[in-house]
Amino acid sequence: MKDLAHINKYFLKYKYHLIFGTFFIIIANVFGIVPAVVVRYSFDLIYRSYDIYETFSGFGLQESTFSVFASSVIILAVMILTSALLRGIFMFFMRQSIIEDVSKVRMYIGPAIMYGINLVTLFLMVIPFMFSINAKLTLYALIPLPLLSISIYFVNNIINKRSEEIQKSVSNLSTFVQESFSGIRVIKSFIREKATADDFERESNDYKDKSLKLAFVNALFFPLVMGLIGLSVILTVYGGSIEVLNGKIGTGVIAEFIIYVNMLTWPVASLGWIISIIQRAAASQKRINEFLETKNDILSTEHIERDIAGAIVFDKVNFTYEDSGIVALKDISFSVHPGESIAIIGTTGSGKSTIANLIARLYDTTAGAIKIDEIDIKA
Hints:
This protein has helices at residues 5-8, 10-13, 15-55, 61-97, 103-133, 135-142, 144-182, 184-189, 193-245, 251-292, 352-359, and strands spanning 312-320, 327-336, 367-372, 375-376. By secondary structure, it is α+β, with helices and mostly antiparallel strands. Helix 3 (15-55) runs antiparallel to helix 10 (251-292), helix 7 (144-182) packs antiparallel against helix 9 and helix 7 (144-182) crosses helix 10 (251-292). The protein starts with a helix and ends with a strand.
């Protein structure tokens, strides 16, 4: 997280977005829990109402009992639909409020933070509620979820690594094709068509092999996720059935817990993905920080602000490139008045670009002075 500290300080600047986003996450999760509770009551209502309905068989009360039962089911269905609609609305507000840089760092600032907060709040709300209903059934439901998160973390890292290899292979293939077409006359002149075709085939096979490796991992990824989710549901039904037979819970609790398992699956699965995003973001931000923390040696001393007329004077200017030691300019003097134009001609490496760069002060002179409107450019 040390490399991400440069980004983390901006969370304080946009704290209200973060606070409101967290609030909307909590509200959205509340309306995610409500349907599960309603489903439990619906199951119990159907089970008990059917017994009452059968009890009044042959009596006039049977019809009125069915009417009350049907009305109750409709009310519960409307409650489920309303909760789903409200959850969708607050999830929209959540995505609009949580902070949205470059590629992987943006993923850390946006989705990683949003899903991280969602994971924490959902766990703090759902799991204690599940334990309050039935602790044993909660343990059955949660057993596969840590394995799901760990599996996704490792598989996601493999997918990311192989995706980067594919991008590099595509880049090499594109560069090879571009160079071959641009140098087609040279290739034909030296009868290198066969060798070039063999090189292209080698690059293409490299891309194909890496793509197949990625496809293989992707093919395993979704069955693995669905299998672990299915295992969690099976354990919930198994554990719930035992508790129902022991008379500790009603059948509606099993349906309720299956909904909770589906609610927790994506946040738990996203945990491994979030960790991978943070690691990749930290590596990217480290490279960005190297650029951001680079100090500029070319600094103004007086910070003069004024309109420029355009008079330029080079007074015995010398310039040597520090990294290579090449002397680009030696004792250069000339002047250009406002509105005038001059032509500077010479062979490659004679210093034409260096003069332009010095006027823009991309470099400072090794000796001599450059003045614009009679003011030293270093002022």
